[in-house]
Write a structure and sequence with these properties.
It contains 6 helices and 2 strands, in the order E-E-H-H-H-H-H-H. It is mainly α. The protein has 2 domains: 3-62, Helicase, Ruva Protein, domain 3 (Orthogonal Bundle), CATH 1.10.8; 69-110, Ribosomal protein S13/S18, C-terminal domain (30s ribosomal protein s13, domain 2, Irregular), CATH 4.10.910. Strand 1 and strand 2 form a beta hairpin.
Length: 124
């Protein structure tokens, strides 16, 4: 049971895949961390020794992950909103930030569709 940065790594996965459970660590960074720590990439998390877990923990501490990374991302977004950049205004309005179309899709950012009342048809 390996615990790094207060994240419980999944026991049944390989070390490289298990490290991706930590926010800010993807596949390539996980491979780099395993190589630097001297831990085999294909070793299961449950089979890691205490020394290997300690080596992994030391390597992960060198990277910007979890709470610090989340805080930095939020500060970047807040900064864009304060200086009224294009992306900042899109964040304020709750619209897609990276140039996606909005007349058809964008339901993830815009939320559930709003019902618009339509005109009654005149019957003859």
């Amino acid at each position: 049971m390996a615990r790094i940065k207060n994240i419980e790594l999944p026991n049944e996965k390989h070390t490289v895949i298990g490290l991706t459970a930590i926010y800010g660590i993807g596949r390539s960074l996980a491979a780099t961390i395993c190589d630097a720590a001297g831990v085999p990439r294909d070793k299961k998390v449950k089979d890691l020794t205490n020394d290997e877990v300690t080596a992994l923990r030391n390597e992960v501490d060198k990277c910007l992950v979890e709470g610090d990374l989340r805080r930095e991302v939020q500060m970047n977004i807040k900064n864009k909103m304060e200086i009224n950049s294009y992306q900042g205004t899109r964040h304020k309005k709750g619209l897609p930030v990276r140039g996606q179309r909005t007349n058809r899709n964008a339901r993830t950012r815009k939320g559930k569709g709003k019902v618009v009342a339509n005109k009654k048809k005149v019957s003859k």
